[in-house]
Amino acid sequence: MTEERYTSLEQLGAQTGAPESPEAARLERVSNPAQGNDFLIRFTCPEFTSICPVTGQPDFAHLVIDYVPGEWIVESKSLKLFLTSFRNHGAFHEACTMMIGQRLVDEIAPKWLRIGGYWYPRGGIPIDVFGQWGECPKGVWVPDQGVQPYRGRG
Amino acid sequence: MTEERYTSLEQLGAQTGAPESPEAARLERVSNPAQGNDFLIRFTCPEFTSICPVTGQPDFAHLVIDYVPGEWIVESKSLKLFLTSFRNHGAFHEACTMMIGQRLVDEIAPKWLRIGGYWYPRGGIPIDVFGQWGECPKGVWVPDQGVQPYRGRG
Amino acid sequence: MTEERYTSLEQLGAQTGAPESPEAARLERVSNPAQGNDFLIRFTCPEFTSICPVTGQPDFAHLVIDYVPGEWIVESKSLKLFLTSFRNHGAFHEACTMMIGQRLVDEIAPKWLRIGGYWYPRGGIPIDVFGQWGECPKGVWVPDQGVQPYRGRG
Amino acid sequence: MTEERYTSLEQLGAQTGAPESPEAARLERVSNPAQGNDFLIRFTCPEFTSICPVTGQPDFAHLVIDYVPGEWIVESKSLKLFLTSFRNHGAFHEACTMMIGQRLVDEIAPKWLRIGGYWYPRGGIPIDVFGQWGECPKGVWVPDQGVQPYRGRG
Amino acid sequence: MTEERYTSLEQLGAQTGAPESPEAARLERVSNPAQGNDFLIRFTCPEFTSICPVTGQPDFAHLVIDYVPGEWIVESKSLKLFLTSFRNHGAFHEACTMMIGQRLVDEIAPKWLRIGGYWYPRGGIPIDVFGQWGECPKGVWVPDQGVQPYRGRG
Amino acid sequence: MTEERYTSLEQLGAQTGAPESPEAARLERVSNPAQGNDFLIRFTCPEFTSICPVTGQPDFAHLVIDYVPGEWIVESKSLKLFLTSFRNHGAFHEACTMMIGQRLVDEIAPKWLRIGGYWYPRGGIPIDVFGQWGECPKGVWVPDQGVQPYRGRG
Amino acid sequence: MTEERYTSLEQLGAQTGAPESPEAARLERVSNPAQGNDFLIRFTCPEFTSICPVTGQPDFAHLVIDYVPGEWIVESKSLKLFLTSFRNHGAFHEACTMMIGQRLVDEIAPKWLRIGGYWYPRGGIPIDVFGQWGECPKGVWVPDQGVQPYRGRG
Amino acid sequence: MTEERYTSLEQLGAQTGAPESPEAARLERVSNPAQGNDFLIRFTCPEFTSICPVTGQPDFAHLVIDYVPGEWIVESKSLKLFLTSFRNHGAFHEACTMMIGQRLVDEIAPKWLRIGGYWYPRGGIPIDVFGQWGECPKGVWVPDQGVQPYRGRG
Amino acid sequence: MTEERYTSLEQLGAQTGAPESPEAARLERVSNPAQGNDFLIRFTCPEFTSICPVTGQPDFAHLVIDYVPGEWIVESKSLKLFLTSFRNHGAFHEACTMMIGQRLVDEIAPKWLRIGGYWYPRGGIPIDVFGQWGECPKGVWVPDQGVQPYRGRG
Amino acid sequence: MTEERYTSLEQLGAQTGAPESPEAARLERVSNPAQGNDFLIRFTCPEFTSICPVTGQPDFAHLVIDYVPGEWIVESKSLKLFLTSFRNHGAFHEACTMMIGQRLVDEIAPKWLRIGGYWYPRGGIPIDVFGQWGECPKGVWVPDQGVQPYRGRG
Ligand SMILES: [Ca+2]
Ligand SMILES: [Ca+2]
Ligand SMILES: [Ca+2]
Ligand SMILES: [Ca+2]
Ligand SMILES: [Ca+2]
Ligand SMILES: [Ca+2]
Ligand SMILES: [Ca+2]
Ligand SMILES: [Ca+2]
Ligand SMILES: [Ca+2]
Ligand SMILES: [Ca+2]
Ligand SMILES: [Ca+2]
Ligand SMILES: [Ca+2]
Ligand SMILES: [Ca+2]
Ligand SMILES: [Ca+2]
Ligand SMILES: [Ca+2]
Ligand SMILES: [Ca+2]
């Protein structure tokens, strides 16, 4: 039942190990199935962890990525492996979030992309990072990400 | 009590089987009962399932369709049967969502239509697809779809 | 304590029966108490029921009506009785919702009015209808209706 | 520790009785502590009650007031006493809500003010009233009031 | 890294098709990793669909299964395939839910098992089915399933 | 695909009018498909309306019915028609709720039954009625109905 | 349509003023319509206000009353008027809540009664009061009141 | 309007400074106004802060205290001042929570008391402490505290 | 693993005491890691307390700070210590909130900054303060802060 | 300000690396500060990740641990490091959850302990694991963990 457009994919449907670093991860792409009509794709990634570059302790985040594809859409298993590759990567919240967005921009050349990084609290204060690239084409519907704000206790 | 406008409908109020494919499904339409004043119709469809074209495993989605009718409105039982017809259809999330929107556009020629496809997670990452067709007429009220974002656990 | 402006009302404060049809219901109005400064009035009506014109079975809806009054505001007991009058009225969701909005427009001549009809599911799919009349005056604050979307189960 | 600007206040920090009517209530004001930079102040008042002018029965409301101060900000204890003064005041929902907004406008001359009155249901139908005065200065951040809509039961 | 206990599994980690019926599905099991201390395992299955035996239309349910293992625990990929096998199976809500519970009881011989079947509404009325098998051993902690009740609209 | 046990049903799958009164409604039943193992069936009925016997105005309720079947289970379309038959029936909240439970007990002879009636507010005060019949057999799992409490505004 | 049992009621369906004190309020009762089978009645009263006996400032509470009737049930309009009568009554939270429960016990002699008083915060700290009278008969279903706890901000 | 029982109170209604330590704080009490009938009093205290004895950094908690009074009830302003007195007090979460409960037990001799301390996260992990003293008398209604669990992000 | 840009920081990773006043607190900054592409950083601070300048009693707030960095980003441990320094600082809600925003603007020269101060209720009425500085650059994504509104009880 | 009981701790307040495996992690303990009165301690741990022993892909969980201390309480920084040590550990959900509980039981000898492991979905089905050790002493208050159930989409 597999369409031709997917035959070049090397990770989807194959046994794959976890890439050792973001650099080692390969983002794969397939041609956009609805090119005549701009639309939005959202990935919600509640399973993300990286390393604090100063203390070496793990950090955790909930990430939401929105983009309007151009010629390509990202293959989602390769996206998952790319995110997994940050497991031993040391970077600050701001740098890490923006690096993920930038890499996707570089690899799939979307018309527009944004990423919301909702990090777990440190010192009682969570940091959220909201970045975007390009200008959203007119006529695209961009719903709010709607992630519930942090509230402490009570 | 049935108004004349509904007498041409063949599926509503009749015993109907499930169509075997999207192509086999017949979308029916009746004339717009409020043509002088543009308004919005929303269908919320939490019961949708199709097949992954690569693995053959079922996929599930929650769909919300908004449109501003032109001359026609879609008859809702025929819409239900159309959605049911994807049960054995193999397509990716992005393609499937956009195909549903396109078919409605082709059959009922709305002034504007959009579809939100909120897919159940695969590999820990759900995909949402947001497509729209045409330009929403001025003076139409378009509320947010307000579907709760995916959050993992905790 | 009753102000003069209310002395012409015939249903408020009186023993009233339920009107037998929308046509038989009398919407009453009093003069707008804040005419120099446009403002918004919202009625939330979770108790609404009508009849399916094809099957004769009851339908239910949650209605929210927003309007900016001109010279008049609608008296709320007469609104309640008007809504009650649909109990034996047969009409489709779209037609019924738009008819309620139109009648209010005809009777109280608001500067702007909109109605959200949030209908209970049939065939697993609820329909929402969003209509509006006129153009909202500048300088009016129009909050989102915020009705929670339908979600099925789970 | 009391700053000079507060020394003219007569109700704050003093033993005060409840004013007998809105007319008898004294709204007090102090000079705006951040005059060079327009900002928004929000009061949320879930404890409000007045009297129905027709039936003499009590009405209840949840009020939210937003304003951008000019030269003055309202002292909050005097606001509380002003709201308390409606306890024996007879007025309809629309009139009562707009009267509160107007009085604040008259007394503290804000650059912009709005009030949301969220009234408890009567006859199964709650009324919300949304009024505003003036034009909100550019560069002011005005968050949604976010009050949960009324939903009946279930 | 695979432990010996899993080497007999035939579906986990293998390419598997969807079984054509519940009878054709193979539930697999591995030995209980914590046999000395009774504990509870919960599976939440929001992706379930079967067929109405009268109308042939699809039904949908959200299922939650709790059990206290004896000698065996069920392998979760085989559980998923078993649930998938109901896709073309015709049975009423009550029968379908109880059949799933019974089959698990037959195959893995738990000390105790219960299943909550939360079905999507038909005719405006959802049905929930709550079954259990055996007696829960003392000293086992059994949290509430906490599935949000159905609420219609508003 | 219809099993033999359903062949005696006269309303399911047939064109049916709305019964004119509770007395005129026919509750139908089929044999319990899981008789060897007590279990619970829950119906959630958010679409219920009756008439106030004093004022003649409509009342609305959200009903939840739980029962443990004996020899019979109630057929759900006949239940829906039975509930519909209260549309022109005059009875107080307490009487109406208990009458529904009693009729089910009389017709299907369950081992145990309970009904929660969650009525829409009158005079600002909603009434809930909680009745039950018989003693719940040991070994049956009875989850909380979990209906959200009434909260007024704010 | 009024049943005989209601003919002795003097406040329901009549024009009534607000009683001036709890002592002046008349609680009325009618015979229990389901005496052979103990059941629970719940009133939710989000509109309650009294006076602080020390400061003279108004207090507000959300009250929930549960009872199992004996020979009588309380007529709900008279309950509403009784609660209204506390508007000018000075009492502490604990005393006021327990007094309401006691009065109901004295007037309608229920088999069991409890009252939850959920008071609005003073000094940043709300007080809840939970009282009950008598012993709940066996075989009565008593759902949790489920009032959301106070949480401050955030 | 002040009742005699309150005349011995020294802090309520008086100008009071913040006590410098828990030892310096005076808890005051008045006689139980409903001694013949055991009942529960709940204080919710979302404004609590103390000091980490190791790092000197502030800690924050949301506290909920439930008790069944004996001869005395605690005066709530003195409770507030007592809690305020921990502002410069160094103690661990467990010790601090239990110390508050113990002090109340010592001062007002309740029949039963419990305290839930819901502390803000440190190192990504919040600690809750649940202590109780004495045995709850039979016939007292003790609702769940219902504080929402901590959830991280997403 | 520490990058060079952080080597000048004096508080992060060091043993630090709590600064005695806002003036004594040192906000530290590091160079913006993504200067070519404007983005938003959000800090959520549910642990904030200061002193009422009139009564000397503690106040509490939940703060949310959004900013678009220019050349610098604020180091988060120094932000935490800055917020901690208000523990003994007397200021009104409006003044305190605006002072925090102004200090950040002075120290890190963001392109745009806003602060939402959500204060705990006093006199039953919470105050929220919403301030902003500068003009948000085009092409920056600024999500709603989404803090749940205050609701009293019920 | 550090009390004597903490002087033997080696990780708290010290620079610590992440332990390489559960075996390498050292759980530390201090004496129970409230030994005469059994109480409950709850840790909520939303940041947990381990490795699937079959596929090598990361798994994520939200853990909640409740225990009644005996002579010792666990030091929370050492608990955090212990949980961190599973980052490269391969184990199934059931085994991993039970191993954490067992290790705590071995190290701090609580009177009673339970752990709820709420794992992120795999194959669309999340697994929860609920284990406990020992018997909870009488007179201990054990609140529900209240973790929201998994719900898929919509
Ligand atoms: Ca939105
Ligand atoms: Ca808080
Ligand atoms: Ca919206
Ligand atoms: Ca999470
Ligand atoms: Ca809004
Ligand atoms: Ca669903
Ligand atoms: Ca908003
Ligand atoms: Ca539970
Ligand atoms: Ca409803
Ligand atoms: Ca439950
Ligand atoms: Ca309950
Ligand atoms: Ca509960
Ligand atoms: Ca409870
Ligand atoms: Ca938003
Ligand atoms: Ca309220
Ligand atoms: Ca609980």
TrEMBL record, chains A, B, C, D, E, F, G, H, I, J:
- According to its UniProt entry, this protein's organism is Glycocaulis abyssi
Q: What is the lineage of its organism?
A: Bacteria, Pseudomonadati, Pseudomonadota, Alphaproteobacteria, Maricaulales
Q: Please state the protein's primary subcellular location.
A: cytoplasm
Q: Which superkingdom does the taxonomy of this entry point to?
A: Bacteria
Cited function: Catalyzes the NADPH-dependent reduction of 7-cyano-7-deazaguanine (preQ0) to 7-aminomethyl-7-deazaguanine (preQ1).
Instruction: Provide the catalytic activity annotation.
Output: 7-aminomethyl-7-carbaguanine + 2 NADP(+) = 7-cyano-7-carbaguanine + 2 NADPH + 3 H(+)
Q: Which residues of this UniProt protein bind substrate?
A: V74, E75, S76, H93, E94
Name it.
NADPH-dependent 7-cyano-7-deazaguanine reductase
Q: Under which EC number(s) is this enzyme classified?
A: 1.7.1.13
- Residues of the active site: C52, D59
Q: Which controlled-vocabulary keywords does the entry list?
A: Cytoplasm, NADP, Oxidoreductase, Queuosine biosynthesis
Give me the ranges of the annotated region Disordered. Answer: 1-22
Q: Which family does it belong to?
A: Belongs to the GTP cyclohydrolase I family. QueF type 1 subfamily.
The record, for NCBIfam families, names: QueF-II
